[in-house]
Write a structure and sequence with these properties.
This protein is of the alpha/beta class. 39% of the residues lie in helices and 12% in strands. It has 13 helices and twelve strands. Strands 1-2-3-6-7-8-11-12 form an eight-stranded parallel barrel, surrounded by six helices. It has a two-stranded antiparallel sheet with strand order 4-5. Helix 5 links the parallel strand 2 and strand 3. The longest helix is centred in the first third of the chain and has 21 residues. It starts with 20 loop residues before the first helix and ends in a 5-residue tail after the last helix.
């Protein structure tokens, strides 16, 4: 049976060779002899489970049927065995995908958390890389787990790689899940007042609850710094108390703590919104005028992102604001100077780069829907997020068409799909 809290790990098919009957008989005789001898020498000792050489394994979380208490031990952080590294496993799988499947893997499509079943056909048709649960819900962990199982079943039955399941569980005004199984999480401003040990303990509990429900990727923590005295002039972050502090050092410390605690509990984290939304005066969801005219490549406001990267965050989300001192022509999500030059090369991030919403967000509205996905991958991104289910088709079609017409883009698409799959290996969704 698959481990509770996770779908059955996707594993490429392998051939098997059966030994001759006489070898099998000899093995049985030897095994009986060994077991008998062990029982005679140490009858009270219990057998320990061994790991098969060449098989990647992951530690599974507990049952989703009951919520964990804050004193319960968290699930161990998923890690593959030494037989095949996560990158090698991901490369092997990505290289075998068809072009349409590669396009599907780099898409994360949103669905209302109250009615996730409506995305089942889209998951099966486009072999999506992930699903984003949007909205707010007080449903139980067991109910959520059933919904996730249904989506994962749709992916498996269509022959697709299992899905990354993501949502926003920051705390305060941005908390997708609440209720008996998901207690209220304080805002980042309040979390920033906690001691390191208290923040670690509470984050571990919040993360463990998500893992037990089948969530694999949290779109948190926020690594943006809102300067003191400017919160009310900063709609996307400061007005909602989403920042951990008003200085880069304070934010960096808490971001590192949250990343370490959440991922030790088995939940992948996403730093956002690179290179920072703490200085803008408009919200990219509702405006094309979100501009940060201060941030440079050596800006201290990048320190929280560097701290989270050093802590090992699985993912970083790109902002859709404009940063004239970094790239005067493009929003960050479409800027190779920011995505590749600054994040990949200067900061050395090697994990999953995902976009903020490129579907309903006004900041990207000047670009045709399909081309939004193309331009993000061209800039060096890996996973395109759209909160609108209807965007799956034009985005997938545009990605395929661009790859068919450009060998350079085709290589970028393969690399992006590989990064998405590598994140799934890390989450324990995929093994080789």
């Amino acid at each position: 049976m698959p481990a509770a809290g996770r779908p059955r790990a996707y594993r490429p098919a392998q051939s098997r060779v059966r030994p001759g009957w006489w070898i099998l008989a000899l093995v049985v005789v030897c095994a009986v002899a060994i077991v008998t001898t062990h029982a005679l020498v140490s009858p009270a000792s219990g057998a320990s489970a061994g790991s098969g050489v060449g098989t990647a394994q992951w530690v599974s979380p507990g049952s989703p049927s009951s919520s964990p208490s804050s004193s319960s031990s968290p699930p161990a952080s998923p890690s593959p065995s030494a037989s095949l590294s996560g990158d090698a496993c991901a490369a092997s799988i990505a290289s075998k995908l068809s072009l349409p499947d590669q396009a599907g893997q780099v898409l994360m499509i949103g669905t209302p958390i109250a009615t996730p079943a409506q995305l089942t056909d889209t998951v099966a048709k486009y072999h999506l890389g992930g699903v984003f649960f949007q909205g707010r819900s007080t449903q139980s962990a067991a109910t959520l787990h059933q919904s996730i199982d249904s989506l994962q079943s749709a992916a498996r039955s269509s022959g697709a790689v299992p899905l990354q399941i993501a949502l926003d569980q920051e705390g305060g005004e941005v908390q997708t899940l609440k209720g008996t199984d998901f207690p209220t999480i304080p805002s980042a401003v309040s979390q920033g007042q906690l001691s390191t040990s208290a923040l670690t303990s509470q984050t571990t509990d919040w993360a463990t609850r998500l893992v037990h429900a089948g969530v694999s990727l949290d779109l948190a923590p926020v690594a943006d710094t809102v300067p003191a005295g400017t919160a009310q002039d900063n709609p996307p972050i400061g007005e909602l108390d989403r920042q951990y502090g008003s200085t880069p050092d304070a934010v960096a410390r808490d971001v590192s703590t949250v990343v370490t605690a959440a991922q030790s509990a088995g939940l992948l984290t996403t730093l956002k919104h690179f290179p920072g939304l703490g200085r803008v005066r408009a919200n990219t969801d509702t405006s094309t005028h979100a501009v940060d005219d201060q941030t440079t490549a050596d800006d201290p406001s990048l320190d929280p992102f560097a701290s989270g990267i050093q802590a090992g965050t699985a993912a970083v989300m790109m902002s859709s604001a404009t940063y004239p001192k970094l790239d005067s022509q493009n929003i960050a999500a479409f800027s190779s100077a920011i995505v590749t030059g600054l994040l990949r090369q200067k900061l050395g991030f090697k994990g999953l780069i995902m976009s903020d919403d490129l579907g309903a967000a006004v900041a990207a509205s000047a670009v045709p829907v399909g081309q939004r996905a193309v331009r993000f991958i061209e800039a060096g991104g890996d996973l395109v997020l759209s909160v609108r289910s209807q965007d799956a088709e034009p985005m997938a079609d545009a990605l395929v068409a661009q790859a068919q017409g450009s060998g350079t883009f085709a290589a970028q698409l393969v690399a992006a799909a590989q990064q998405v799959i590598a994140s799934k290996v890390r989450a324990g969704l995929v093994s080789c």
